[in-house]
């Protein structure tokens, strides 16, 4: 049996909109399934933990955005049950990276092929991160978006508006990094991204070489640049060509500690974390995906 966990608010209601079509596809083909709808933030984690404990559950399928798969993957911590994914979010970075079709039917057909693949995740405190962590400016933008009452009405547009608003007021600061026991200090840091996959923020290739099957995390540090030059550089992140900019520093490692003089806001797969300083390590091949 396959268990579907549907986030009804993901992608401004897309999860709820596509579910009847998915259900009718499954019923027509007599594919055994059960469905649960998330009722509050964090619910998908609890639902997937409970589902994985049941007998005869061969896969848990998340229907939602990156926040939903983050929760479902966390609920599966330590369980060998594979996770399928039908994209219904706004950013869909995990789907983009794994070339999971954005249309529900193609994504479902891929799941039904039943070809599990093991991938790395990153561990921070008690959380599993599947895509990336963003610290500093990026975390502050995520926080501003999550707190905005306009999120529903403006959809993707809210990210651009908040990215500009936060940019106008954000104060860069000195950051201390420890990557595989090597110490680094960067001044006037705007953001540090610790990536497990190359895509971030809805299609930006922040760490073009990041791979979730190489046993490593990729870091991108943007520092020592004025706000206007940063704004000018942002479009380059969509192609990944920002890595050649002198204000960008790339590092790879297995264990990372991020600290600074003042705590910075952290987002993990789009969800705000309240742990700081951060100690992150890669967990090689720790999640099975379909
Ligand atoms: N019933 C619910 N009511 C309110 N929030 C919910 C509910 N169910 C889940 N959530 C929360 O919805 C948030 C957004 O989900 P998700 O990230 O999957 O969608 P998205 O933001 O549209 O997509 P993406 O992250 O790909 O841009 C998550 O933080 C999740 O915890």
Tell me the domain tally: 2
CATH topology of the largest domain: Tumour Suppressor Smad4
Identify low-pLDDT runs.
none
Q: Helix and strand string, N-terminal first?
A: EHEHEHEHHEEEHHHEEEEEHEEEEE
Give the number of helices. Answer: 9
Give the overall shape. globular
In terms of DSSP E residues, the strand content is 25-35%
**Strand segment tally:** 17
Structural class: alpha+beta
How confident is the prediction overall: mean pLDDT?
Answer: 94
Under the CATH scheme, which class of the largest domain? Answer: Mainly Beta
CATH architecture of the largest domain: Sandwich
What does this structure look like?
Belongs to the diacylglycerol/lipid kinase family. GO terms for molecular function: ATP binding; kinase activity; metal ion binding. Residues 1-128 form the DAGKc domain. The chain is α+β, with helices and mostly antiparallel strands. The protein folds into two domains: 2-115, Probable inorganic polyphosphate/atp-NAD kinase, domain 1 (Rossmann fold), CATH 3.40.50.10330; 127-284, Tumour Suppressor Smad4 (Sandwich). It has helices at residues 14-28, 43-53, 66-75, 93-98, 104-112, 137-147, 151-154, 157-169, 227-233; strands at 2-6, 33-37, 59-64, 83-87, 117-124, 127-129, 132-136, 173-179, 182-195, 199-200, 204-205, 217-223, 248-253, 255-260, 266-268, 271-273, 278-289. Strands 5, 6, 7, 8, 9, 12, 13, 14, 15, 16 and 17 form an eleven-stranded antiparallel β-sheet that branches. Strands 2-1-3-4 form a four-stranded parallel β-sheet, sandwiched between helices. Strand 15 and strand 16 form a beta hairpin. Helix 2 (43-53) packs across helix 3 and helix 6 (137-147) crosses helix 8. The longest helix has 15 residues, at 14-28. Adenosine-5'-triphosphate (ATP) binds at residues 7-11, 38-43, 64-68, 71, 89-92, 270-271.
